[in-house]
Amino acid sequence: MASFPTALGLSAEQTEDVVQQAGLAPSLHNSQPWRFRLSQQAIELHSDPQRRLPAADPADRELRLACGAALLNLRLALEHFGVRPVVALLPRLAGPTSLAELRNGGQAKQAPEELALYQAIPKRRSNRRPFLENPVPTAHRHALAAAVRREQSSLRVMTRPELGSLEGLVHRAHRMQMADGRFRDELAKWTGRPKGAAEGVPADAAGPLPEPQDQWVLRDFSGGQARARVPGKDFESDPLLVVVCSNHDSRLDDLHAGQAMQRMLLTATALGLASSLLSAVVEVEATRDELRQLLGGALQPQAVVRIGYGSPAPATPRRDLRELLIDD
Ligand SMILES: Cc1cc2nc3c(=O)[nH]c(=O)nc-3n(C[C@H](O)[C@H](O)[C@H](O)COP(=O)(O)O)c2cc1C
């Protein structure tokens, strides 16, 4: 096979690694809605309109969050290979799918904390299983909030009184989505995939079969194949739930929030913490509005994340790297 194309003065192996790290980002239903155009002048990040999820994500907001996460991975990987990335978000005069352009801004020396995040990229997983009862230490909570702030976004840690209201919203949003045939069809298309599929959520990553009394993890990603709960393995009683928020509600804010979410998820991974996303509440407009009010009205809730100490979770598949390239 021909060697991998090169970009920004990197070798073929380095360019391949950079694209691979980007493609390891999380995405709704593991849709992997990103594409890359490589040249010596720039790496362009594009959305892939074929991979939109119109029932769950009609405005492509979560698509941009996922692409923002891929962008953070790209930045970390470029720094790892000594390239300081200069990033233009939503570059002017570019086509409608163009989300970011990265150029070579000179030599970089990756700081140890950033190296730890780069090394966390392949270890991060969405972990839908019950977490241990051990609380997340305060210093770790501060580190998660700082990670989000670095990417021009803010993190709200849900307080105990707020958790009750959030739980009501999460259940309502889930029921509304499951009552919608278009949503159910889209979910069915992307979940319970057989072994060997390159996209979608495989049954073994789905976690235990959701049960009516579960507080938080409600979406069944197994296509009906999830294993029943091991007796006594219930979800943690005092979960840490955080909300990644933007100050405004624009396409640019979505891209910042995606980078913030990913920096937080990688920080969590590097600290030995597990995480999973609970998106129904921010996908249904009515419950997203209520969550916005619950958070005080000023911040735009982008991603709700459950964080804790978990048992190992399986990796999900990714597409062939060459399929991610725009080849003109
Ligand atoms: C914007 C966004 C929303 C997501 N929402 C959910 C969700 O509601 N429930 C869930 O279990 N996983 C959710 N996920 C996690 C994806 O299913 C997961 O990233 C994908 O299957 C790839 O697996 P990985 O994260 O283990 O690499 C979401 C991911 C993203 C980026």
Automatic annotation (TrEMBL):
Superkingdom in the source lineage: Bacteria
Cross-referenced InterPro entries: Nitroreductase, Nitroreductase-like, Nitroreductase/BluB
Domain Nitroreductase: 248-309
MF terms (GO), sorted A to Z: oxidoreductase activity
Protein name: Nitroreductase family protein
Lineage: Bacteria, Bacillati, Actinomycetota, Actinomycetes, Pseudonocardiales
